[in-house]
Structure formats: structure tokens, C-alpha cells
Request: fold
Amino acid sequence: MPKKDDDAKKPASETVPDQRWKLQVFYLCFYGFMTQVRPGESFITPCLLGPDKNFTQAEVTNMITPVLTYSYMAMLVPIFLLTDYLRYKPVLVLQSLSHISIWLLLVLGTSVLAMQLMEFFYGVTMATRIAYSSYIFSLVTPSHYQRMASYSRSAVLLGVFTSSVLGQLCITLGGVSFLTLNYVSLGFVSFGLILTIFLKQPQRSLFFNRPEGAGDGAVPTELDKMARGDVRGGTQGWREAALCRMLREVGALAKQPQLQLWSLWWVFNSAGYYLMLYYVQILWNEIYPSTDNRQVYNGGVDAASTLLGAGASFAAGYVKIRWTLWSELVIGVVTAFQAGLLLLMNTTSNIWLCYAAYVLFRGSYQFLFPDRYLPLQRALCAGLRGQHLLRHCSEDHHHHHRG
Reply:
């Protein structure tokens, strides 16, 4: 009887609507693993520059690749809002359809316009990755968030590593052409669409479809009190709108002094990180324009950088640093190290040295990635509702292996 009373006292967010949640989490992790297995992804740029597509380096650099950057930027905010409003699954279906479009265009397309369309769909897939990251929170209670999110993230990392190794083995040992590898990738993403269809449609989401009375198991925040008691009359409706709640909570977080430095670092460092990631294969091809596909080691380098990034992310959790005292120094040292690596990549004529600098650059980024959220977690422990989203939702974006 006391146990039942305790259960009855739990907040709504601690109630699991479906007791099969463990099976659903396993299926989601399997889905996350399989959708990352795209062995041709590490070799997209060599494919575009090779005899299969025969585009010039100027076309790839100036006309094709930039579409990815701008489409991702344009789609990120709308898809973020749609992800929560539509409760994840429709956005995951959109992601799978976009993956299929990418590989169909890579297999069948021959014009610059077709490749630009391919890059547009690639930007869509990147923007929609937030749906997978946040889907897990609709399946479990807040007490399981951290562990289940680590499982889903590990599944993604394992999928990226497997994909990179598989692609490299096919190229180096199997002598498979880039075009054949694109067909293999098309098969995997088509299977991913089938897996997506069988995902459960969640009944709740973080903002637009929150269960009544859910407070994430936390003490009510000042924002909650304001929304309940200080708002009267006709203003009640728009103040309680999900989008307004989101903006108020983000505004409250932005006022936290210890978050400002990390936020600025994240914005500018991530911009450099993604630009490097998008264009690095073009640099590799310029340093080492191999005519033998078996001597293109992009997949192996991506696999190594994924392992180092996962190891750095894991190790960072065990490094005890007083961030309030040493954060500026740590950020400065790591950023200077990254700048040196970029300078080395830009000036060296040794492809292996460039590979090593790339692996270290990604590892250094991942080392700081989890720890920059420690101040954020402390601020959110006061009860702000976005805790689980802001802590985990963007993690998968930093493990994709497209150059």
C-alpha cells in the first residue's frame, strides 16, 4: 500500500505511459545504429570528383558543397519546432525519405543541379537529427533520461564507426567502386525507412504536447509560477502558448553568467567545426589526388576520429576541473590547439599529417562538448523545463562523418 501511495504522488512526467518502454528503447537504438550505416558517405566528395561523376573541384567547392551549409541553416529552426509539434516520428520519416533522395541522386544524377539538390536533402537530414535525439525522452521517465540518452548516443557512434570501417574495407580490400558503394548505401537507407515506419508515435513531446501537470519532476520554476498566478485575463492564452514558454525559458537561461562564455564558444567553434567537416575531403583530394580508389582512406580516418571523439567525450566526464575558475584558460588552450591543427592542415603537403590533424581536431572538439553543459545543467537543476533537451538533443550532430 505505501508503494502505491508513493506512485500516486509522483509527478505526471514520472508516469510511463507504456510499460514496454525498454523494448521501445532497444528498437530505437537499433534504428539509430542502422540509419548511420551508410558506407558511401565518407567517399561522397571523391565520388563527385572521380570518373563516375567527373565534376571539377571548382564546381564541387563553389557550387555544390555550399548548398549543404545554407540548407542546413535554413531548415534548422523550422524543423526544430516541427519536431516537437509533430511528436518526432513524422520528422524521422522525413529524414529517411531525405536519405533515400540523397543516394538516389548520387546514383542517378549527373548534373550540377542534381548534386545541389542532393546537398539540400543532406542539409534536411542534418536538421532532422534532433528528432532522434529527443525521441528518447518521450519513452522514459526523467530518472532514466541520462542513461537512456547515453544508450541512444552510443548506438549512433557505433553505427558511424561501423559504416566508416565497412566503407573503407569495401574500397581498400574489395576494390568496390564509389558508385557501387552508393548503391549499398541506398539499400541501407531504404531499410532505415522501413524501420522508421514501425517506430511508435509518441503521445507527448517536450513543449507542444506536454502532459498536464508535467514539471519534469522538478520544483516549479519562477516561470511556472508566473504562468499560473501572475497572468490574468486575455493575456493567459498567448503567455501559455508553447512557443512563448520556449522563448521565456531560453531567455532565462541566456541571463546565466556562467553560460554566456560557453554559449559563445559553442557558436563560433561549431561554425568552424562544421565548415572544416564539409570541406575537408576537398582538401584531402587536393593534397593527395589519388587515381586509385584503394588508396583513398577517408573511411578509416572517419572511423579513427569517431573512436577518438567517443573516447575524449567519455574521458572528459572524469576530468575534475573547477570550471568557474579555469573555464577561460581551458577554452583558450583548446581553441589555440584547434587553430594550430587547422593551420597545419592548410599548409602541409603530407596527407597522413593532414589526416592526423583532422582526427585530433575532432577529438579536441568532443573533449569539450560534454563539459560545456555542466554549467547549463546546474542552471537547469532549478527546474527549467528544457533540461533534457538542451543537455542531449544536439549531441548526435557532432558525430556525423560527412566531409
Notes: The radius of gyration is 22 Å. Confidence is low (pLDDT under 50) at residues 1-17, 214-235, 370-397.
